[in-house]
Amino acid sequence: MILIIDDDSAVRSSLSFMLKRAGYAVMDAPGPREAMDIVRVEEPALILMDMNFSLSTTGEEGLTLLKQVKVFRPDVPVILMTAWGSIQLAVQGMQTGAFDFITKPWNNAALLQRIETALELTAVSKDLPEEVDFTLTRNHIIGKSKGLMNVLNTVARIAHTNAPVLITGESGTGKELIAEAIHINSQRVRQPFVKVNLGGISQSLFESEMFGHKKGAFTDASADRMGRFEMANKGTIFLDEIGDLDPSCQVKLLRVLQDQTFEILGDSRPRKVDVRVVSATNADLRKMVSERTFREDLFYRINLITVQLPSLRERREDIPLLARHFADRQAELNRLPRTEFSTDALNFLSRLPYPGNIRELKNLVERTILVSGKSVLDATDFDGQYLRHDEPVRAGENSSFAGMTLDEIERQTILQALDQYKGNLSQVAVTLGISRAALYRRLEKYNISYE
Hints:
With 451 residues, this protein is an alpha/beta fold.
């Protein structure tokens, strides 16, 4: 049963009609007192609740009701309803424990999809044990460490839903592969998987790139262009580096995520789209929200589910498996004989700090194979190709990084790279296996001058 709480009888009637047609049992209440009478006796599967009632225009009455509902029914998902101009109320509600929010007027299809997602995720959390033996299509995700297994366990639980997912983790940890795994294991697998690097889209091109344009919409619009959201219709859109999105573009993205409608430049007709949104970032979005560089309402819209990826330093037992995988791929792509690793080589690789994570390991393995030309690699081969700090890390010796914190190791590695490549940031980023944007963030983090 779904409980609708709204003091507008027309809203209650409209929602009841829609939900009943969709096969749901429905009850409704015009205000907090009537709602709590129902909540104390019944256990709704989900609650749709307005934030403003006739006695209050500030939302305080709605927030108070939400807190009371969560006391009596803490596991029941609550979807809040509010006007577009009052989204901050919904954000406060999310902080209080609401599952999701919609704005009025709502899109029926988008609302039904969110209701279905909320019910599916609630059922998953109730019915499945903590550790589940899932059959999961991994798609080149290599490893068996506990940290990786926890990630894949989460992917298996939520892949079949339409829940928006935020993938976080350091640069080079494999966020795109996890996004692809979510899509491949979802019901949308036969539909498009569209990747967008938001950090590479300028403010001026954002609307054209994401929503498309009609011929003649602006000076250089010589032909119609389909936007990324329309390309991803019925499938999944992967918004990589969402933390790098210009603040002026964030509200435009929020609107399409809110009701899954958009307008093409040069055409004012609203277009509907059905996409699942998976986002990724290596930035601290909560910190960015507190610094007002990332919209709080957008933050809550994209991270209904958060998947935190471990760094390679936190899954060292996977390094030999990954190294062999990259070597086999290199042999296959370049039609080379299969390369083997000595025990010393694997021990050497397993002790490195990897500020660039899996991407850095991949680059190191591939570079060493191509440069050495040997069929069996040992520690000295990798030692010669590894961009290290003051002393080499040799097999059988204590690591020269012993006693240093991970931040100190990373800072020293970056400083050496800057010195070796005479400040060429592009070459430093490639060698470390990280993006230029990630390198800039690290330079700022460690107060390293690069000019």
